[in-house]
Fold:
Amino acid sequence: MSIDYAARSKPERSLLLVDDEPGILEEMAAFFRKRGFVVYTENNASSAFETLKEHRPLVAVVDVNMPGFTGIDLATFARELEFRPHIILMSGNPDWVAEANQSDLGDIVFAVVDKPMPLVALQQFVQRAMVRNWLK
Structure:
């Protein structure tokens, strides 16, 4: 078997950001785009699920507490997809963080982080999740 290494492309660093707070969403999107990520944004879990199905990003960073479906709901729905992204859940509410940590979603949730988080630290979580996704 021969591999044409010149024809192989670098894996796309695709990322879905989901938050119902426009200012936070815009700030995160600008940060990751500036660093070369392909970024999709949504402000609710229902739209985010459609974006997951259509664009198949490697990682999704999702606010837990949103109107309608929560980030935990989105992770549950994403389990049913053929291509499963790694999901990083974030919340500024300790109760939501505790609920997310107690959920039975360890196969799809890569991490649960406090919000706000310095974007440089969030980038480290995203990059680790992408590497894990590339290796599976």
Q: What stands out?
A: The chain is about 45% helix and 20% strand. Residues 14-135 form a domain with the Rossmann fold fold (CATH 3.40.50.2300). Residues 64 and 72 are 6 Å apart (CA to CA). The beta strands are 14-18, 38-42, 59-63, 86-91, 109-114.
